[in-house]
Amino acid sequence: MKKPDVPARETIAPSDLTFGLSTCKRCLWLKYWFKFELKKEFPLVKPLADSQEEHFRRASMQDIDSSLKEGVVKQWGQWVKSAPIKINGFETRWKILGIYDLLGHYTDGSVGIIDCKVSDSDRDNGPFYAPQLEAYAHSLENPDKGKPFPVSSMGLLIWKLAGVTETAQSELASNSHGFGVNKVYVPVERDTARFSAILEELITTIEGGMPDSGLECNVCNYLIKRAELQID
């Protein structure tokens, strides 16, 4: 397969710093050079995440978690784009481009990034999602355009299912039920050194030749088996 002269995209998705490198580097490479990726459908995730985000708009940061400083959620669902990324002092072609969930503004002038999750997975922890949140922080502190914002906190706001609960009666049903949730806030520590190392690994991967297929990658295995088929 011949590598094109220019990649199909020149912006890095924050989620690729968490999921891309931890899954299959070949799929990651194909995504950036050929815009090839299999879309995953999670029908309930988006409406649940949207409801969670809407619920906390304009919320007090201390209502989200008592450990947070005094402030208010003033922005949500906005795109952020970084200036060109530098690796070892050299400017690359790549910029970070992504959408954060909630952005709290503290009274001291700094901001706090909150990433919303509706899940009950052991993977929902600070170290796993730190690179993704660091990508938002880097873009806010080093924007492609506009005023930089100093980031003083990052965290996950997780809704975990807490079973079935009765809800208010509606015109359509006399006995309505819904799913209850428990709110958990998980602070994520800044680690710019680790973030820089992961960012360098990702850029080195996508700027190099096509990596070998991952033995545990279902997508790669499917494509290889499909290519082997002789169809008359």
Compressed to H and E, one letter per element, the order equals EHHHEEEEEEEHEEHH
Largest sheet: 5 strands, mixed
| End-to-end Cα distance | 24 Å
Give the quaternary arrangement of the chains. Answer: single chain
Number of strands: 10
β-strand percent reads 25-35%
Rg for CA atoms:
21 Å
Give the CA-based shape: globular
List low-confidence stretches: none
Strand arrangement within the widest β-sheet reads: 2-7-8-9-10
Q: How large is the count of helical segments?
A: 6
Mean pLDDT: 87
**Class by alpha and beta content:** alpha+beta
* Helix content class: 25-40%
Relevant terms:
alpha+beta; 232 residues; 6 helices
What do these coordinates show?
The protein is α+β, with helices and mostly antiparallel strands and 232 residues long. It is 29% helix and 26% strand. The protein has six helices and ten strands; from the N terminus they run E-H-H-H-E-E-E-E-E-E-E-H-E-E-H-H. It has a five-stranded mixed beta sheet. A three-stranded mixed beta sheet has the order 1-6-3, with helices on one face. It has a two-stranded antiparallel sheet with strand order 4-5. Strand 7 (102-106) and strand 8 (111-118) form a beta hairpin. Helix 4 (126-141) crosses helix 5 (192-207). The protein is globular, with a radius of gyration of 21 Å. The chain starts with 10 loop residues before the first strand and ends with a helix. The mean pLDDT is 87.
